[in-house]
Amino acid sequence: MLWNNLQQTVELGWDFYLPVIVFVGLIAMAVPVWASIGSAAILMLIMSGDLPLSLVGESLFSGIDAFALTAVPLFILTGDVLVRTGLSRKFLNVAEALTCWAKGGFGSATVLVCGMFAAISGSDAAGAAAVGRMTIDRLVESGYPRPYACALVAAGACTGILIPPSIAYIIIGLVLGISASTLFLAALIPGLAILISILITNIVMNRIYAYEGGGLMTMGEWFTNLRRALASDWYAFIVPGIIFYGIFSGRLTPTEAGATAVVVTIIMGFILGTLKLSDFPAMLVSSAKVNGIILPIIAFSAPLAEALAIMGVPQGFVTAVTSLTDDPYVLILLMIGILIAAGCVMETTPNIVILAPILKPLADNIGMNEIQFCIMMITALGVGFITPPLGLNLFVVSGITGESILKIAARAVPFVFFMLMVVLLIAYVPAISTTLLPDIYK
């Protein structure tokens, strides 16, 4: 019914259908997403004749000609440097000292270190790979079944796009014309809420199945452990401290904070003796590969967005959906369902550049705050990353451990449930996203 309404609202012909078929077909054949989007966009422009092909080159350049995008490679590089210098293991040591007082302590430490890594790298796949290599074997030694340990890391790594600073918020800010710093501030409470929901899930599962043994510590023993960890590893928190203080105090833009973090991390690596000049080629190549995936997608999304806008697809989608129901609660559920399903099958960047311009008018139509919409969208996509059976993070941890994807997916269900509860709170309670913002954004 929705599709029929869309067809009646917008006169869709083969200039729309064929590019969509080509896009889906290329994705199914494992063609890179940027090439699939670019092919569909150019074919749509050729068939519709709405935009001269001579302007495509200009459109591609304008899509990535933004100072804010400079922050993306900088945060990715910071994450790579953290792993190579061993500073990420310092986070694990402190997280373990924080949570060792109770049963399930190392599982909770794993989730916390995912959050710490997320606050620096801004990437969920990088967090899943880096933290998974450090913790999964130890989780198994602590008594966790390997599929559950993999699911725990996959869930914790979802915070990579949810806890600011996040690459996803930089991109959606660019697509919708919203300040990344504002989105970072708005995402702080929702990101922490997702992290807490994962911690609670792990605690509940430990209560039920008694995965992790060990007795409770006294307050004195816990304080002694924490003091020792901080005394030996405190300097690892200089980097996230710079990023958080610089961005949230307004003294640094996200790009400046990313550049400062890279320089400081490199200097610390040299001082500690864990980073050598010979490490730089592999480190830079690794970061460049990730950037080589993200930036072409953003570039080719510009002509696609222009073609869809000229054809009236976003506006037609709003009219078609609201003709079925004008109940904002139902429409929000519909958006969440679309986003989680999209998060299952595609990475964050293509989902943002394709869906944000289409769903944003629907959010505006029901009176949803644009900041709240952005937070809801990114959080729902994050849940999609571990939603069985196609979540991206499930495949990442399966790849580094060799564990069956279906076994990991089955263990991920409780995490999806608790995270979905947070998504619904974000969608229906605007204050969760806007409490920290100035009145002008509320």
UniProtKB/TrEMBL annotation:
Locate the coiled-coil region(s) and give their ranges: none
How this chain sits in the membrane, per its record, is:
Multi-pass membrane protein
Q: Which residues are in the TRAP C4-dicarboxylate transport system permease DctM subunit domain?
A: 20-432
Localization: Cell inner membrane
- Top-level taxonomic group: Bacteria
UniProt KW Ribosomal protein keyword: no
Q: Read off the InterPro entries from this record.
A: DctM (IPR010656), TRAP_DctM (IPR004681)
Keyword annotations from UniProtKB, A to Z: Cell inner membrane, Cell membrane, Membrane, Transmembrane, Transmembrane helix, Transport
Tell whether Transmembrane is among the UniProt keywords.
Answer: yes
Q: Where are the transmembrane segments?
A: 20-46, 66-87, 107-131, 152-178, 184-205, 226-247, 259-278, 290-311, 331-359, 371-392, 412-437
- Per its UniProt record, what NCBIfam families does this chain match? dctM
This molecule's function is given as: Part of the tripartite ATP-independent periplasmic (TRAP) transport system.
Q: Which family does it belong to?
A: Belongs to the TRAP transporter large permease family.
Q: How does it assemble?
A: The complex comprises the extracytoplasmic solute receptor protein and the two transmembrane proteins.
Its name, as the record gives it, is TRAP transporter large permease protein
